[in-house]
Amino acid sequence: MQEILLKTEDNIKIAINHFYSPKASEDVLIICPGWFMTKDSRSFKEMAQEFSNYTDVIVVDFRGHGKSSGFYTFMSKEILDLKSVVDYARKRYKKVNLLGFSLGGGLVLIHSALENDVDKVISVSAPADFYKIENHMWNPNAWIPTLFKKFEPRRWLSIRPELLFRKKLKPIELINKINCPTLFIAGKNDPTVFEWHTRVLFDNAVCVKKYELFENGRHAEDLFIEDQEKFMNVCIDWLQGKVYVENV
Predict the structure, then answer these.
(1) pTM
(2) Which superfamily does CATH assign the domain made up of 2-239 to?
């Protein structure tokens, strides 16, 4: 694994972990964590190692997180961060695929709609509209089940949110511009971004698409933590082209 610093158009340093598959892959999967998660989070390091059995992997620290500079703007300027990572990847790989979680899931949809420069997308627990996120973090179901798996005080101390209010792009307003195959994943028991967000995004997408609901799943990377085998199988089948059925 190699840690690399990139720079965005607005001079923010973006840290990435670049994992190389033993299979000498010509493809790369860019993993985009959501708010309060970093590339060095235990769950994302483990996830990257699992995916690197099939493809090269890049995991991103968005601005205001981990070893990247700047302040997190909650989907306003992070699109510049992702663009710098995709540009880096496109110079090195034949195919570039995106996997995003929560707000990171929204960012991969926005990027693919605006740039049309990636091959496949997987969006997990993405909000259709940031302003409509339910975010019931007070609910014990939102934090107790994964508390000890995510107990990382060093990560918590690395998070730097911006206090300014900025206008945000809404995935639901751009979803019909996505041309690449897109897999939408949701947890039925998600207390943070309710399932309907993913469903309405899927319903309005016009690309080759699939909707996958984890019946007992919660939010974002929790789906990987709670049922790693199923999560990996669903994602790898999609990336390898084994599932190209459009649900209606």
Answers:
(1) 0.93
(2) Alpha/Beta hydrolase fold, catalytic domain (3.40.50.1820)
